[in-house]
Structures are given as structure tokens and as C-alpha cells.
Amino acid sequence: xxxxxxxxxxxxxxxxxxxxxxxxxxxxxxxxxxxxxxxxxxxxxxxxxxxxxxxxxxx
Length: 59
What we know:
By secondary structure, the chain is an all-alpha fold. It has helices at about 5-30, 30-59. Helix 1 runs antiparallel to helix 2 (about 30-59). It has one domain (about 5-59). This is CsbD-like stress response domain-containing protein. It holds the Pfam family CsbD. Belongs to the UPF0337 (CsbD) family. It comes from Desulfonema limicola.
């Protein structure tokens, strides 16, 4: 598996985990968990975009 594909997959996984944490934090009124989820979601988006860039450069 190419590193660009790995980055894209890992990015999507982190986005999903982050969204779950964010929603759980909102439901439990736990601001720390909600913030942690938002950060993980953003990190996932960055990682996915990095994979997109790697793929575009590799063409």
C-alpha cells in the first residue's frame, strides 16, 4: 500500500474517532472530551490532505 493511501485511510479513521469523541463529549457535557474529539478530527483532515498531496505529487 502506498504511503499516500495509508495517510488517507489513517486520516479518515482519525476523523471518525474524533467525531465520535466530540459527540460523546457533547452528550456527556464533557468539554475536555469534546475538545479532544475536535482536535483529533482536524488532525485526521490534515493527514488525509497530506495523503492527497502525496498522491498528486506522485503522478
